[in-house]
Amino acid sequence: MGKRRAGRELLRSLSKKQKKHLREFGEEHPFYDKLLLLLRLYLCFSFQSEDSDKSSAESDSETEVEQVSGYHKLLATLKSSPESESEEEEDESESEEAEESEAEMDGGGSQETEEAEGGEEDKNDVPEEEEGNTDTAEQMLSQEQADGTDISCDPRHGVIEEFTDVKHESEFSLETNFMEEESGDCNADRRDSNPFKQHMDKELEEKEIEKMSTLPKTSSQSQWPRLGQLIFSSTLEKHKTLKADKEVDVKQLNLHKPLESTWPKVNKQFLSAVDKPLDSSFTPLQRELFCIMNSYRDLFYPERNALTNGEEIRHTYCLHALNHVLKANAQVLSNNAKRRDRKPGTDTDDHRDQGLTRPKVLMIVPFRECALRIVHIIISLLEVNDKKKIDVSNKKRFKGEFGSDPEEKPPNLKRPEDYEAVFAGNIDDHFRIGVAILQKSMRLYAPFYSSDIIIASPLGIRTVIGAEGEKKRDFDFLSSIEILIIDQADIYLMQNWEHVLHLMKHINLLPLDSHGVDFSRVRMLNLNNWSKYYRQTLLFSALQDPQINSVFNKHCFNYVGQVAVRNVPLTGSISHVVVQLPHVFRRLEADSVSSVIDARFQFFIDKVLPEYRDAIMSHTLIYVPSYFDYVRLRNYFKKEDLNFTHICEYTKKSAVCRARRFFLKGEKQFLLFTERFHFYKRYTIKGIRNLIFYELPTYSHFYSEICNMLKATDNGVDATWTCTALYSKYDAQKLAAVVGIDRTAQMLQSKKNVHLFVTGEN
Fold it and tell me: Which domains does the chain have, with CATH numbers?
């Protein structure tokens, strides 16, 4: 009892900050190591007394989880050097003072005041959530363990390990199950017009593989009513040009039987009164997209919009992926029955229906909310009616980890509609989950090698793949992926595009281990290491970008061919600028793509910056899309001792407040501003009089958004506003998205600077 009493006295003596750290990590911060030993003794005594009613095995496992969780969370806090409590309180008070002073400066309406208080919404974004979690961390831990829930994969506990659902392993095994008669799709694989069967049973020859590896692709164009201009490309003999179906009968699509009845019900929310007379199940966009998907061609669609067609597209590729999985599994289960009923001693090679590993579909999405919606769509497609609910294992755990609390969103936080659509729900970008589907049951958190579908973020899949030289890494589960879906690819440019490239380098490689596969059931295409020539890649993005185009052109080898949507913008986002502003587009010359970076920097410091050094050209915001360019400019400005401040995605809240206040008051002449900060925050920067786009924005609508920020300060200096944008001949796609295709053609032909005056109606 003496130790316990001493521990209580120590707890009373701790500050609020120390108590918070104790609740969150289970031990005191190393900075206060003089109390560490005694506190550990007290905590151990407390945990033992609380768990005395439990078995020894349970308490050992729980203590181990707690220790690992605390250790990993503690490592996260040690990334930055520990500071004294007084220093942190000073920084917080300074941040509050900056916010209060900025709010006083802005005055005005509630929206403007909130946007000017750079840190207020962030306080609601992060700290409140952390406090809520720390107050109930032990309760959640004990509750989950009492329910028998495995927390090893929950990022809230600091440990991310693959969760193995041993309980349902045998129920979802393809090798030990057989096709149910009432499913009614036993003979679906015999249909001659089955696209799945035609694609997977095609036997390529060595000569054809050599052609695809060496010869360039031939292309042709086609105009479709809804998708617009399509580019069909293929290396093998010229295929028949695919034509858009004006009307689609669900029964003629060779969908797996349950999907024929569930799809019209699930998709009816997107059907308008205009569409229903023509087609009872697809919108015009979905009809043309599914026509391409069902032909098993690769597809690149760069016009995905989170506000308008995002959910339509998501439903369409979920239908295609689920149809593929159900047909593949039905074929395996049907062949299981045939092998069971065959005569002893007979051996046949006709039942090759599997890959080297089980996962068939890989879906790459940016946030947990996207994975949540995909799983809900799949469940809806599998449920024939309200009476016949499918059995979904680990559903409660899934909702807890991938769902979101509406109350977590800060009140009165106003952002553009597209921002609200993209960042809705749980926006954690580190996750992965395996999904197994077998007839009328669905298994979430299935081990990868027992999964049919893997849903993951680029970061989540990268941490499993690992890097060369790491001891613990695994990418064998990617060896037999037959459909790769990369949705919202433009967001990965704002996250880390290297993760996508790393994935593409490790997909469809021969596995290093057999993983218990029956080689007599493996298709020859997998044994020959030709999986990448059969893989269908579906790539969806909100924009056309050279890096995204490169993935589609260099990492897609589908023998059927590729289809890319290539519509050109007619007007451009400059037409959405509502302030009267002269725009100057200054062209820089570069010999190659690799030399553009250095050429742009030299052009800026030699030709552009000298014009803005004068004090008259104050309040100049420099918009920089690339973080590396931002660092280079920041270092140069420091070296030249220029009067500037800077904001990037890594800037602390207090520093953001100070930078915005200094810029608004004119205490700093220049403000370096990164695109990723604008993407994730969308603050309105007040006080801008001169704009410089160091490079054209990745998102074309950011151009008009930044230009329209000039109206945020109404001080009667409209005549002095300026906007300058740098571009080269290698920026044709970005330039067309900003000024339109006609102006782009003229600007690329002429080497002179282009002056445009936009009144909001151009």
Answer: 210-339+360-407+416-565 (3.40.50.300), 573-759 (3.40.50.300)
